[in-house]
Specification:
The chain contains nine helices and 15 strands. The protein is of the alpha/beta class. It is globular.
Length: 307
């Protein structure tokens, strides 16, 4: 009996060690976030023309840096290892490191930005991944485009991808082909026209997972077929009120199941999350989020999550 217990203990330690040694992985939006990539606001962000970048106003760089430091401090408080992506880039939007790539258990998929002003970020993040010993599984080719904000793991074998202005059919088809050998199902979700090509409406603008079977959603813009799929998969849906949608109430980063981080200023959404059993951190993001139209999820590229 003691020998069997010893073997079981050694196996458990071995599994834990292998997870600890892994520098990447996690086909989940809600598994424990262990390692994340962020990018500090820089001169390109601070000097961004609102007209050119579709910002509501030019960011104040000094305040933006303080907001970002406070944002990172929340992640570190929850035990997340933070890696910085500081390669100089001309893109003001490069602060939103979620978009140029996604991480799978088999390596990174390097995307191709649908916003022309952001093209070039992909190569820089690829080099950063390589420096972190994250293998490159696939890179989009030709005219295929996709952005990370349109890509959502429903579970480790189901990937939802929004088709809109930033992610085209070619991009979805290539990602589906790259993941087919791993028995991963790719579900296409058609996005609404909304404010048109210049605005940024990603799939993750409409839905954030906060637990394995719990999703924060803005139902008005989600296709009926996708809502039915979520319900058939057993998801509990927490609705974002319309008055808090434009202030990014639905953009929430799960740090671990039922522990999440979102921008302050959406009290009803926060109350609904708490009523659903979530611990909710908020950050002040007037410069890094409201002005630039990117929330907590956009500001992070999870590198390692444990289910």
């Amino acid at each position: 009996m003691k020998i069997l217990q010893a073997i079981t203990l050694l196996m458990a330690v071995s599994i834990q060690t292998s997870f600890a040694a892994a520098p990447y992985g996690g086909q989940t939006m809600v598994g424990d976030l262990k390692k994340v990539l962020v990018r500090s606001p820089d001169d390109a962000f601070g000097n961004a023309s609102p007209q050119k970048w579709h910002y509501t106003a030019q960011p104040d760089l000094a305040i933006a840096k303080r907001e970002h430091q406070d944002f990172v401090a929340i992640l570190e408080k929850e035990g997340v290892q933070v890696e910085y992506h500081n390669t100089p880039l001309p893109s003001a939007d490069a602060i939103f490191v979620h978009d140029p790539a996604i991480i799978t258990d088999h390596g990174a998929i390097i995307l191709r930005m649908g916003k022309p002003l952001r093209q070039g970020e992909e190569h820089a993040i690829k080099k950063k991944f390589q420096s972190l010993n994250i293998p490159i599984l696939y890179e989009l080719t030709g005219e295929a485009s996709a952005e990370g904000g349109d890509i959502l793991w429903l579970d480790d074998k189901t990937l939802a991808i929004g088709r809109g202005f930033r992610t085209n059919q070619e991009g979805i088809d290539e990602i589906r082909k790259a993941l087919a050998k791993f028995d991963i199902q790719v579900i296409q979700v058609d996005l609404p026209y909304d404010q048109g090509k210049e605005a940024c409406l990603h799939l993750q603008s409409l839905i954030s997972l906060v637990d394995h079977k719990k999703a924060l959603v803005y139902l008005n813009y989600l296709p009926v077929s996708f809502v039915e799929l979520l319900k058939n998969k057993g998801f509990t849906l927490i609705e974002v009120p319309t008055k808090e949608f434009n202030s990014m109430g639905s953009n929430v980063l799960a740090i671990k199941p039922n522990v999440c981080l979102t921008i302050e200023g959406n009290p009803e959404t926060k109350k609904r999350l708490q009523a659903a059993g979530c611990k909710v951190y908020t950050y002040k993001g007037n410069e890094i989020s409201h002005k630039a139209e990117g929330g907590a999820t956009c500001l992070t590229r999870p590198l390692l999550r444990l289910s």
